[in-house]
Amino acid sequence: MATKKISTKIDELKAGVEWFYSDEFELDKAAAKYKDLTVLAKDIEKDLAELKNEIKVIDEDFSK
Q: Would you say the pTM of this structure is higher than 0.85?
């Protein structure tokens, strides 16, 4: 699994989204920030899919 915990990545994503609604928002930085957050969101989705697969494997082991 990735080096950062999923919850840490989700917190980072939330903070990034909140930036768009904050007083710190700058239009010239918005496109780059959006791209970065999109990459982060895809990374989170990948981590969650891996975690789901691990849970399925564990569940299969216990159901034998």
A: no
